[in-house]
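Provenance and format

Records in this collection were gathered into a single text stream. Each protein contributes a sequence line and a token line. The two records reproduced below are adjacent in the stream.
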Amino acid sequence: MFRHLISIFAIWLSLAGFATAQQSSVRVLAVVNSSIITDVDLAYRINLAIMAAELPNTTERRLDMAPQILDRLITDKIRLQEASRIGFRIEDRFIQDAFDAIAEQNEMTTEEFEAFIRTKGVPVETMKEQIKAQIAVNAVTQRLIVPNVEISDRELRAEINRINALRGRSERELVEIFLPFNNQRSESEVRQQALQIISQLEQGSDFASLAQQYSYAPTAGLGGQRGWVPEGTLDEDLEAGLIGLRAGSITEQPVRTDDGYYIMGILRTRPIGAAASRTIAALRRVFLNLPDDLSNPIAQQRLALLTSISEQVRGCRNFDQVIQQYGEAGSGNLGEIDLSTLPPIISVTLSELEVGDVSPPLPAEGGGAVYIVCGKRVDIDPLTSENVKDRLTSERVRKLAGRYDADLRRAAYIDYRF
């Protein structure tokens, strides 16, 4: 089927000048229930995908992308139809707000962004139609799936126990692009598409843009951001695909699952349980008043004293003696302080010190100060059941939304006209 599609496109794409197709020669490529998709729709959507991925607009590239983009257009039509069926009206202001946000992300005004995408052969309505489809899938998920997802107390306790057992291991901030198996494309065709996307990513294309254009996961509208996921909590196939993958990298090969192929990436890693933490330091300081004019001989003398203390005094007991001998009002034992509550220039410097280290002279209101760290710890907020419940709910919603999407596709009437 898609080989026949490519042979047709090879003719008209070369005649269309890549950017537009003549309205007088519009051809219906597919009927999706009560909607149609034309070659003009496809040409503009290919232009959008090429623009988003910052790819060269060549005939070969367009031929490679045509089958996948047509497939995505069909899915978008089905999602919009389902949103309409359940009575959800997608208001123009929601679409415009999303469009304006994309313009802002690209550091342009709305008018500038509209003019820019037109130069790329992308009508404003083409991008807004894609945004509308993303809103539709979110609406269907929120109305039909989320209300039916419940996490039992037993499931919650089991997950908390499992995560506690994983403490000391890492969790990963993941991104994903999901390409499902379906009746219209063979598994080898889906894998080939995944390899093409990986190649684009390796050439510098933006992951979020490609996820929005190609991914069928519920995270597509978020640029593929899946969030923080502990090691060992994904399906076995995905976990196996992530083995050895470092932060800042994507999978070099598509990861096969029972439902389709994934392209996964790890943005960052962190110890499990470190989602919210505070660095607490037991501090002492010597404070000296300084004149506003630091070139003043008295100011220079006091700055020299602070530098001498910083370079020569070691140990909290010795530091206490220095406080008694030289310290002015504002000096002394400050107790335990959350470093995030201090001015940035102080907190950043002190965060890098080990216990027993003395800071260089630092600015303080009305003068200067030298600090010593006499104790230090990192307080990690305890695991809360609400956080775990939210994550379990999100994972279940994601799976059910994928199945619902697949069911809609199977039930749809799709008539290819080529």
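Adjacent record:
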Amino acid sequence: MIRRPPRSTPSNSSAASDVYKRQDIEVYAPYIQAVFDLPPSDPRRIPFSVADQGIRKDSEIGAAFLSVLDLGNSRFEASKVMALLEVDAVRRRFELSVGDIKRIRSWIKDTGIRWAVDEKNREELGLPPFSENTWRAGLERLLLGYALPGEGSRVFGECLPFDHVEGSDALLLGKFCQFTETLFNLVRSLSRPRTPAQWARTLGDILEQCFLPHEAGEREAQVIRRILYELGTVQEMIPFDLEVDIKVIRWHLTQLLQKEVLGFGFMTGGVTFCAMLPMRSIPFKVICLVGMNHDTYPRDIRPLGFDLIAQHPMPGDRSKRKDDRYLFLETLLSARQKFYISYVGQSLRDNSPVPPSVLVSELLDYIGEAFELEQGSLWQRMRKLAPVAVPLFDIMLRHAGNIAIALELKALGA
């Protein structure tokens, strides 16, 4: 399917020549990464990019920002807090390096920090109010260990100092305490309901106090700032000044971040994986449509009960099913050499046949009526689903043998 033209280089061999499209590209993104993301030294590696992913999955800052909002309903587990601290934008804000994170991890493990901010936080969760294994208890041990030697046995005010903090660790400990105090205070401030305008200011403070993106990540931060600005202008557009809970705001932000696309990854000099979007009728040598299942495409949009437009349709109303039909035709016209379509044709339960999308069926019917194919021509093939199937195993062995022969010829200078 993907072959380089003569006298081509890896940097330009696939540019503007191969593209894979899927309506919901985020579903296939993990599998694409698993297959194509090989080391640069691997001879089987093909340059690729995945475009049109929502900022929530494509942006480290977007996911981390939502995780801060989730901490209000959590037990402040050490693993969740440290996962947030490992985000590059958070480390930059508190001037921490990768080596500092390893040191902080060892402190958390040795001081026994597990979950909960303090005993009051545990009481709010309906649990016994004890301070052992909380963040407050662990930080007090670290600070007291720097100030007073405990020698592993001397207790000061019911607190055993942690002796392995000295010298240059003081600066790192101060940054770590600043991070925890800032995070815990901001998360606790989310418990009170607010108006949309107040939430916009509060969440803006979280973004500025916890994240410092680098130049490449500034675009992601700007998208979040724009969403928060639009949230703050809701009261000006409609007469809505009621106070809402953080759960409502979190759900609203999640929906917006899923729809926002950064625009990275389209036509970057390799095989492009992208969603089926309008206004992309760009000619490609090879176009592949994956996931064209009968229950996936065209999209079956169920209208809401209060949707008056759906209840009383009129000429000119937008129809997403018709939009999908147009996108399919537009994609077909963009293919110059090969047009590949794949779908799940057998049931995973009983192996019974499953029809493709109605658009694929119509295309197959048209090909059968309009063209006379040569005897034995294979324009429609069935592939096995399981990777251990004998036909697929033979194909993998043949490809591995071809690569081995090519490497041997390259070593001989052929």
